[in-house]
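Input chain follows. Return structure tokens only.
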Amino acid sequence: MSYRLASWVAGTAVALSACASLQPVQTAQKMAGSPESSVRETFGAPTEVYKLADGTTRWIYSHQPLGYEVYAADFDGNGRLVNFRQMLTEKEIYEARPGVWTKRDVAERFGLPREPVQYYPLMKREAWSYRLYAAGYQPAHFSVYFDDQGVLDRTMIIVDSYGGDRRRR
């Protein structure tokens, strides 16, 4: 292989990798129906893998604790990509069901927390926290609180007033 061709192939690989990291949802939507191996080649190894109750498999790609994204890649029973989305959105968060969901349900949806888990003894509640952009641009923290049986008690979004507004950057 000539030096020029090798350089072009390397440059193309870098460009495709940059696209996948800068616009992962758009990149993955074009990959619908692709096998798990293609998704792994494009996005790397997932941070977590869950077998869901409906027989699908979910790969979590967490950018926590310093990033603001958690992506989920869902695969059908044949290992083909059927869905890829950003999980830390208000739409996803508002689907949480206090009194019903457990720690496992939250982990399957948002991944395990990457920030230290807190326990509040007076409330008798364990708290997991995730960073996100509230309303699409305002840095915030999404917290979930579990009772001592591990059942979701409540959720909360707290805007980070010191985090700035990414529209002004």
